[in-house]
Amino acid sequence: IIFVTSFTTVMHAVNSQTVDMMLALLLILGGVIGAQIGTRVGVRLKAEQLRILLSLLVLTVAIRIAVDLLVTPDELYSVAPGVLP
User: Which residues 6+ apart lie within 8 Å of 18 measured at CB?
Assistant: First the structure.
């Protein structure tokens, strides 16, 4: 089922040209490099240290989302990533 679904999705994206190939390549490259780094870090750190790092990452993302929700941007209809004032 996974292979058929994947193939169908790829064929639909190729035919309708709805996929940004540069973005897809960057995400794949980041995932491959991140997996290599993650396995090396995971071997060297204890489980408790990994949990702390994960919780810090989640907390950082939550704070960033909260700031983006509370701070009014200078230009309301801009699609550029928000920069903290």
Answer: 12
